[in-house]
Amino acid sequence: MYIDTNIILRAILNDHKTLSPKAQKFFRLAKKRKTKLNTTDLVIGEIFWVLESKKIEPKLSRKKAADIILSFVNLPRKINEEVINFLVEKGSDPEFGGRSVNRAIQDKIENLVARKIVSGETLPGSKIEIKKEELL
Length: 136
Known about the structure:
The protein has one domain (about 5-135). About 60% of the residues lie in helices and about 0% in strands. It contains 7 helices and no strands. The longest helix is centred in the last third of the chain and has 22 residues, at about 100-120. The chain is globular and about 50 Å long.
């Protein structure tokens, strides 16, 4: 099942009387593997853009938001906060919103992972740790 930005934000922020509990219940079912969730890096980028642009981030650290998002989509949660901050800062563009973060993820993370796979440094599907220095 595909999930969009609004569903994830309602669950993270718990800011809507009726929709937030429904979104949280939906994600609890997904964690129990009763439904499989899919999203795109554009949606994830848009979530961080909303958190930043609405000045919500001071209440909810970027790392905590990333942990929550990744747990929803069943991805590994070993996140380097420097990398998250770097991507959000590189992708901050009020004119283009979440698309800018999406481009930063594609340009920095996806290219780095592809280089590591092509060079044989890592195998497809394996966990890798990404450091900010590798993205510069």
